[in-house]
Amino acid sequence: MLIKRYILQELIEHLYKKEISFIVGPRQAGKTTLMNILQDYLNKKGEKTLFLSLDFERDMPHFKTQLDLVQRLKLEFGNKKGYVFIDEIQRKENAGFFLKGLYDMNLPYKFIVSGSGGVDLKEKIKESLIGRKRIFELNTLSLKEFLNFKTEYKYEEMLNEYLKIDQQAMNLFMEYMNFGGYPRVVLEETLHEKKMIIDEIFRSYIEKDISFLLKIEKIGVFSNLIKILSSQIGNLVNFNELSTTVGASLQTIKNYIYYAEKTFVIRRITPFFRNIRKEISKTPIFYFNDLGLRNYAIGLFGKLTETFQAGFLFQNLIYNLLIDKFARTGVTIHYWRTKDKAEVDFIVDLKDRIIPVEAKCTRFPKIERSLKSFIAKYKTEEAWIVNLGFKETVKVDNTSVKFLPFWEIIE
Predict the structure, then answer these.
(1) Which of 3.40.190.10, 1.25.40.10, 3.40.50.300, 3.90.1150.10 would CATH assign to domain 8-137?
(2) With 90 as the cut, is the pLDDT of residue 127 above it?
(3) What is the torsional sign of CA 67, 71, 77, 80?
(4) What is the pTM of this model?
């Protein structure tokens, strides 16, 4: 059974726009599969298509210059309409400028391009393709995509109700918390095969995206850094301590973290503050794009057996759900810490108002002192305590504190 990716419909609608459709995301997240589905969709409609990949030696000569590629396309399509799929564009040096030149030739071809997020691609595509592209970020399977696939789409229109009443749902939830959402991992049945695949994904990432693409020499240092960050999700990250621990310069640590962000492995969350003197203003927190990769890096892949073990991992999950929920809305998400050690996991900044959010991996959460402190300080209309199943609304001063089961914030 094919796994449904909910970004697919947006991509189909964009096929008929002149802009380049640009699919970016982590290695092995399913970008190539998605492009194959799009190509099949177009072929069934009688459209002419061509699939090229910079992973294939036979296709590499077509990317030496823009003229080489244009000659190949004219051979395939002539001067008529055609759809060109280009996979793994991050392997092309100055990829953004290469595509800009093609676009500006005003060719009768629509380009659908994918990339795993090379630094050159991520940095230069913005300036070189302004007004010429739309970026579609494809991550590993979201919790929603995972649950619907695992239940064979029987509850697709009533997923909340299923999660509320079916005992099997918690088993699936724990499976996702353990193994994450890499499609190849999800599709495998045995723990042994899942481990083999996540190991191959991690090694491929280090050896291809990091070693080859980013020209990093100290691969062991980078790998150790990822492992340390996996043990610190939800905690403030001290770059100086990281530098000492892994035995690399401060600038190297900052560069490597930057690379890990740009290749969609980790996400940086910055602090929310109004009073810089009393609230921490610079130190970041990092979460992982995929829970399975995080668990693998720390040696916990498949070893999570009880929810009480999963506090920070649940926090990571809720952050990912919030990112999905507010994607492309301009909403930003931060954390809150004070020098007096009061803390709130997430602050959702809706511009006209803010919502403090606490993630509690329990069925019986409480309103803690830090959240009350934030409410008293900022007089928010509402606050959320996202948990494993309890739902209720109570008043704290004039704030509605909503206890929400995690499934109620699934995008």
Answers:
(1) 3.40.50.300
(2) no
(3) positive
(4) 0.91
